[in-house]
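Need a sequence for this fold. Nothing fancy.
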């Protein structure tokens, strides 16, 4: 479904609410040519206490941290961005939505150095259902190990959510879909497991949970952090600072992806090798159901993770 089919009408841009169709930029915008933008993707859930943004503060933290290596000054405070987002959700009367803050170097000149380009900032919010499909959450998805490698953290800061880095995600994801898979898995430069194009990955073996460490050139996912916390609180042992070789994927009992968009999505096959018994495994199901209990607020635990609209 495209934006034109959605009931949305407002975008916050550089301090003002503008009509959706008026949120325009010049074709010579620096960020368009050089990928010099940073962004976030958060979800607002429909809860019994009304719409609530999940882990908004952590998304703001990461937005400002992503700007740092690029010496990008976001001209708006955390409070202003928060107020803008809440107002955007209220004005559009959204009960649940995806939230996309973006900041990028704007229009002035097109040297690679962005020194004289202003930083532009925008926030949009729109309804967005399950990223990989409703069935994916229950049955799991088929994943292809991409022939593209992830950029190494020695080449670009992979812990910054930079627009330009998503060329790699696009290539990997489209390659997978061309080959009949739902999503890709990308190995890092060393050939170990990194992450999906827009997801972190978890492996379950003998009842314990493993996920690649931050030094494996991955994004420090907020859902990754959430799942580590929930799993530990459920009593699982979580190893979150390990290298995972490609071969270990095939011998895993269970695999699943996490992400703000993908939530907790089981993986049933990697390169046509069936994982476990080829369906959502018991540990994945346990964590996934805990995750949805939390985000839909059917439990009152972890309330500090929510920003109510
Ligand atoms: N890795 C990449 C490359 C991503 O784009 C995302 C989505 N932001 C993730 C991991 C998951 O991060 P999060 O849980 O914060 O959405």
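Here you go.
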């Amino acid at each position: 479904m495209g934006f034109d089919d959605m009931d949305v009408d407002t975008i916050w841009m550089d301090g003002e609410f503008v009509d959706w169709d008026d949120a325009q930029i010049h074709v010579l915008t620096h960020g368009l040519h050089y990928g010099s933008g940073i962004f976030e993707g958060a979800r607002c859930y429909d809860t019994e206490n009304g719409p609530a943004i999940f882990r908004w503060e952590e998304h703001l933290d990461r937005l400002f941290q992503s700007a740092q290596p690029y010496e990008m000054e976001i001209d708006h405070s955390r409070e202003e961005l928060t107020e803008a987002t809440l107002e955007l959700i209220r004005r559009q009367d959204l009960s649940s939505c995806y939230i996309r803050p973006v900041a990028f170097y704007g229009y002035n000149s097109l040297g690679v150095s962005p020194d004289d380009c202003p930083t532009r900032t925008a926030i949009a919010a729109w309804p967005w259902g399950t990223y990989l499909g409703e069935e994916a959450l229950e049955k799991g998805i088929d994943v292809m190990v991409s022939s593209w490698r992830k950029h190494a953290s020695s080449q670009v800061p992979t812990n910054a959510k930079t627009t330009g880095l998503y060329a790699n995600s696009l290539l990997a994801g489209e390659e997978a879909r061309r080959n009949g898979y739902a999503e890709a898995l990308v190995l890092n430069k060393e050939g170990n497991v990194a992450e999906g194009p827009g997801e972190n990955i978890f492996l379950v073996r003998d009842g314990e949970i493993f996920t690649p460490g931050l030094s494996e050139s991955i994004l420090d996912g907020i859902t990754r952090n959430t799942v580590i916390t929930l799993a530990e609180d459920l009593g699982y042992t979580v190893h979150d600072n390990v290298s995972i070789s490609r071969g270990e994927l095939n011998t895993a009992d269970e695999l699943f992806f996490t992400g703000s968009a993908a939530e907790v999505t089981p993986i049933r096959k990697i390169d046509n090798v069936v994982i476990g018994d080829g369906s959502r495994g018991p540990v994945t199901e346990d964590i996934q159901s805990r995750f949805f209990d939390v985000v839909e607020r059917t439990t009152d635990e972890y309330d500090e993770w929510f920003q109510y609209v």
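For context: Helices lie at 30-34, 56-67, 78-91, 134-139, 166-178, 222-233, 246-250, 282-295.
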